């Protein structure tokens, strides 16, 4: 009898753990959705040139945009930040544009891996940091949408994978050594999942993830110094670029933060 009871308890415990994980996942997805919908409703207008960011939260932003284009007959031209963003635009039958013909973007809505109290962002967890920063820099406003787990006081409080740095493949070792000598920390050459070897970006480069140890660095100076190293293409620090951030909460509400 005791053996049977123990088996049943383990069974119920495992199912309870699965239920908790599923509820947590649902909570995160709901948080992403409410943040994305709020941002699109507030910032996308008729005849808008719209920068489409990358990542899981942006999926909901494009979904909401497609709904509004259909119901309100909006005319919106979408400029993608990545291959993924381009495919989302095509999937939802939205108008696809490019920087050549739309060099000034009204608003870009994008995700972030982490946002600190000064609205400094870590981006590039999905490997699209170069194109994301290009689109953001030519936008009148950069709006960040994220769930509550991305909201931090200091960079590194929650996001532990480090700051992505896109580099020319031939130079990744000396670049890594140079930054370690300057600021310490550790580096990982980002590895691909479905193939042997490193991740290769849309631009044919490698990504170094810099796991920093000093959270009190001047990120604006750090970003400028690292970008001066030959072979560094871009760094996933977005300093003084974000106009507004929306953080979806597990209860379904949204916390807003202005720069």
TrEMBL record:
SUPFAM superfamilies: D-ribose-5-phosphate isomerase (RpiA), lid domain (SSF75445), NagB/RpiA/CoA transferase-like (SSF100950). One of its GO terms (molecular function) is ribose-5-phosphate isomerase activity. Belongs to the ribose 5-phosphate isomerase family. It catalyses: aldehydo-D-ribose 5-phosphate = D-ribulose 5-phosphate. GO terms for biological process: D-ribose metabolic process; pentose-phosphate shunt, non-oxidative branch. It holds the Pfam family Rib_5-P_isom_A. It is an enzyme of class 5 (isomerase). GO terms for cellular component: cytoplasm. This is ribose-5-phosphate isomerase. Keywords: Isomerase.
């Amino acid at each position: 009898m005791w053996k049977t009871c123990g088996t049943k308890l383990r069974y119920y415990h495992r199912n309870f753990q699965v239920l908790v994980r599923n509820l947590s996942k649902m909570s995160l997805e709901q948080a992403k959705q409410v943040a994305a919908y709020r941002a699109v409703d507030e910032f996308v207008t008729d005849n808008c040139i719209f920068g489409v960011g990358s990542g899981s939260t942006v999926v909901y932003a494009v979904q909401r945009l497609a709904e509004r284009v259909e119901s309100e007959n909006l005319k919106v031209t979408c400029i993608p930040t990545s291959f993924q963003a381009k495919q989302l635009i095509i999937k939802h039958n939205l108008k696809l544009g490019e920087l050549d013909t739309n060099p000034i973007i009204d608003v870009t809505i994008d995700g972030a891996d982490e946002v600190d109290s000064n609205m400094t962002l870590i981006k590039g967890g999905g490997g699209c940091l170069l194109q994301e920063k290009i689109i953001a820099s030519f936008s009148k406003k950069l709006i960040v949408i994220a769930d509550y787990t991305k909201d931090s006081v200091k960079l590194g409080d929650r996001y532990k994978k480090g700051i992505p740095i896109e580099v020319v493949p031939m130079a990744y070792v000396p670049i890594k050594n140079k930054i370690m000598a300057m600021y310490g920390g550790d580096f990982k050459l980002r590895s691909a999942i479905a193939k042997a070897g490193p991740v290769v970006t849309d631009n044919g480069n490698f990504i170094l993830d810099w796991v920093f140890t000093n959270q009190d660095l001047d990120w604006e100076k750090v970003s400028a110094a690292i970008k001066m190293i030959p072979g560094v293409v871009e760094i996933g620090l977005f300093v003084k670029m974000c106009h507004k951030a929306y953080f979806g909460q597990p209860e379904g509400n949204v916390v807003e933060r202005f720069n």
